[in-house]
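The data layer described in this paper is built around a simple, fixed record for each protein. We quote a single record here, exactly as it is kept in our systems:
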Amino acid sequence: MAAGGQQRRVRAAGSARRTYAAGTRRAVAKRGNGGQRSRFSAVRILLVVLMVVAGVKLVQVQWFEAPTLSAAAERQRTLTIDIPAQRGSIVDRKGAKLAFSVETRTLSVNLRALHKSMDEYAKAHPGTDKNFETQVREAAKYIAQKVPNLTTEQEQLKLLHKSQSFTYLVDDVEPSVADGIVEQFPWISVEKRAKREYPGDTLASNIVGLANWRMDDPDVSKHNLHGVVGLEGSRDTDLAGTPGREIVNTQNGNNNLYLPGTEHVLQAAVPGSDVELTLDSDLQYEVQRQLSDYVAQSNAKGGQAVIMDAKTGEVYALADDKTFNPNDPSTLQSDLLNDRPVTTPYEPGSVNKVVTATAAIDSGIASPTSTVQVPGTIKIADRTVHDAWTHGTQTFTTTGVFAKSSNVGTLELAQKVGQDRYLDMLKKFGIGQKTGIGLPGESPGYVPARDQWSASTFGNLPIGQGLSMTVVQMAGMYQAIANDGLRVQPRIVKSEKKPDGTVVPEPAPKTEQVVSPQTAKTVRDMLRAVVQNAKSPNAGTAPSAALEGYQISGKTGTGQQIDPRTKAYSGSLANITFAGILPADNPRFVVGIRLDAPDTTLPAGHSAGPLFHSIASYLAQRYDIPVSNEPSPVVPLVLP
């Protein structure tokens, strides 16, 4: 009973458990599966959201931000560099270089960045001896050792300790040397530049001028060699060329270290054109040397000279005893940079008498052998004009008036020519007008306007006072006489050679027929008597200018200068001039010379004839000029 009751209780219990488990298990199972599915769904939704966000970001990066990010990355490893254009050379008529360019480097430092990087390094490496001070001392010593001709260790230390945030260290460093310095000290920056070389130093420097590296333009791409004075300045557009640009890869983003072979040219630099001159550099050197020596011998303030082709007007030499050395900054003084043969007019004196001689012959007023009664003085308005020597009334031939340089005889002939005809001839010779030689700063000289003439003006002009001209203008008058009356515009630039090798000649020079060929030849023959060496009174004013074997025509001049103290004509200060033609019977060259206030008591200061003789001798040898077929005839100048 007990057992049966127990069994019934067990069964009852078992039966009750089964009933609970069946109902409950189904409900629990249902609830449990639903929760798991919910968790899976949430995870799936989260994953989808994340993928969508990532996709959107990817699209944003790849499509919308790609150019910006790419440019930023590119900037971290590339650098855009301006490529200076190669400046054209200036060469003489035979191709000898008077000016050319070489590539250089300039070193600089960002001192603020260097201080910061060294401070950070010192903090990160306690106890290190590498700091700003040790670095700059090592760099200063190293740079001075590598370029001892450009700087010193002390100079570099001073620059590296400047209070500014940036400083240039040294210019004109050879590219390979600069690369070595930057490799040793990566914090040093390097800039591509160029330097102008003048192999002749002072040779033709007043003509060629000077170019240097200019950084005054706000456009960095235009920082380049640019002309300052002379042809370097006036022909700067032709010489300069057009700069270019390139991209290079940098090492670890360091703009100072370029990776070789990574250069990519964005815009190629276009070189400048070469400028060919009419100058003969050897002749130019010789004329500069002889002129400087003669100025010293005559104790003159200065002197200028020009040699011109008698037919073409091409200038073979143009010299000033005062010049500068473009390779030496200490000589770059304003008074030395001046190109006086074209910029500085002066009163020429009797060398201007060729105008009266030409007008008298051309108008038929006189012939070489016709005579003029010449007293010792002549009165023009309120002025009394006399000759350089005392004499009574004498009978001069027309040739003698100019060979002896008689002021009185010249004024007598000028009065017969007339003021208007004289002024017209003066203009035909180009006086009072720029020659157009092609050099900057040219002066036109001065001729008073006709309506401004006083009663005594015509007592001055025919003898070369009261008007002014440059050495080039003076030589130009005699070029017309040498060239059968045809005056040719003088020029000093012959052609321009483009980067592609094309040669572009300068425009043809302007010409003007001053007088007929016969008149020019007659005057040229008359002026041979100037160098005539005969017994007094038939000696010319410059026998010392004669050159054995050659007929020489020429004219001396002594033009009074204004005394700066009294503002009146000085009795001791003068312009001593000479213009000559070599040879007179077949003209090849014209030479013009001016001495500024020499000591006229000295043999060299009394006349420029000896200097002409020396220059003419060199010309005859250098250019193998054939000797004249016969010597100049000795002609009477003053008749008994």
Summary: The radius of gyration is 44 Å. The longest helix spans residues 2-64. The longest strand covers residues 97-110. Residues 1-32 have pLDDT under 50 and may be disordered.
